[in-house]
Amino acid sequence: MTALLELEGLAKHFPVRDALGRARGAVRAVDGVSLSVEAGTVLAIVGESGCGKSTLGRLALRLIEPDAGRLRFAGEDLRALSPRALRARRRDMQLIFQDPFASLDPRMTVEDAILEPLRLHDVVQRGGERARVRQLLERVGLRPDMARRWPHEFSGGQRQRIAIARALASGPKLVIGDEPVSALDVSVQAQVVNLLQDLIRELGLTFVLISHDLGVVRHIADRVAVMYLGQIVEEGPAAAVFGAPRHPYTRALLAAVPGTGAKAALVEGDPPSPIAPPAGCRFHTRCPFAEAVCRTEVPGLAGGEHRAACHLQDRLPPAPALRERVAG
Ligand code: SF4
Ligand code: MG
């Protein structure tokens, strides 16, 4: 297998200023992330809100500039591309946003919204664009004659389908979905997840799913990366991460998966400030297993195919009840 997307030591810090404009440190939104996504697979990036996963998704497509690190798409150094070359490369890399209400221009018909990327990237021959729009609408489960309507005439689920059609218009190889169903009614979420799953399979897409909802991730991911305070704390095949989580934070997240009868999160309290993350293991302030070493030594990601950043990962008690809960 070959990696379509490779991130190495990627970092992005956002300066924080007080009311008088004085520098007050920086939010370490993404703090040294290395990941690679094989072509044709689905990687899920999970974690609590504010852990940096949305920033990471935007960095991966160079929608925002990293402060440090390497970024390769199909072997090409994305950070070395000129703005013009990067615009051309956008054809292959698309983002689906969380909010289908905000991601469509209310002054554009559905047809015009989907025509825009088709024309920008010169995807279809002149004269064939409108037929292609109708095909795309059908492909996402909407009627072709809906092309002439306006975004406000659609429900949230339909708008997200339109946004998906728009993202697919240029024929991308890589799609990043940033919480693509979390703004939708629960009853509609499964339908849109199923649609995404079908599209991924049929089009052979490489997909990065950013989500705080492990129930959604479980259905769709080949691999899972767990993020905490700007860093990856665990990464591996989905079955391994869900079946035998190695990091205490992952265990806590899994224990809080809705529908498992264990809604009460094991992660107590709020995450610490990403402006001044704790020394040593960043999770030590909330970890039930923390020892002295955890407060001083930074644990590296270790363990090969299924990696975790925890000093105690080989000594933690097994979590059999947890395994049963997430197996169904
Ligand atoms: Fe908990 Fe220590 Fe492991 Fe961090 S390194 S997750 S504090 S046991
Ligand atoms: Mg987010």
From TrEMBL:
<keyword id="KW-0547">Nucleotide-binding</keyword>
<dbReference type="InterPro" id="IPR027417">
    <property type="entry name" value="P-loop_NTPase"/>
</dbReference>
<dbReference type="InterPro" id="IPR003593">
    <property type="entry name" value="AAA+_ATPase"/>
</dbReference>
<comment type="similarity">
    <text>Belongs to the ABC transporter superfamily.</text>
</comment>
<dbReference type="InterPro" id="IPR013563">
    <property type="entry name" value="Oligopep_ABC_C"/>
</dbReference>
<dbReference type="GO" id="GO:0005524">
    <property type="term" value="F:ATP binding"/>
</dbReference>
<keyword id="KW-0813">Transport</keyword>
<keyword id="KW-0067">ATP-binding</keyword>
<dbReference type="Pfam" id="PF08352">
    <property type="entry name" value="oligo_HPY"/>
</dbReference>
<dbReference type="Pfam" id="PF00005">
    <property type="entry name" value="ABC_tran"/>
</dbReference>
<feature type="domain" description="ABC transporter">
    <location>
        <begin position="5"/>
        <end position="254"/>
    </location>
</feature>
<dbReference type="InterPro" id="IPR017871">
    <property type="entry name" value="ABC_transporter-like_CS"/>
</dbReference>
<dbReference type="InterPro" id="IPR050319">
    <property type="entry name" value="ABC_transp_ATP-bind"/>
</dbReference>
<protein>
    <submittedName>
        <fullName>ATP-binding cassette domain-containing protein</fullName>
    </submittedName>
</protein>
<dbReference type="InterPro" id="IPR003439">
    <property type="entry name" value="ABC_transporter-like_ATP-bd"/>
</dbReference>
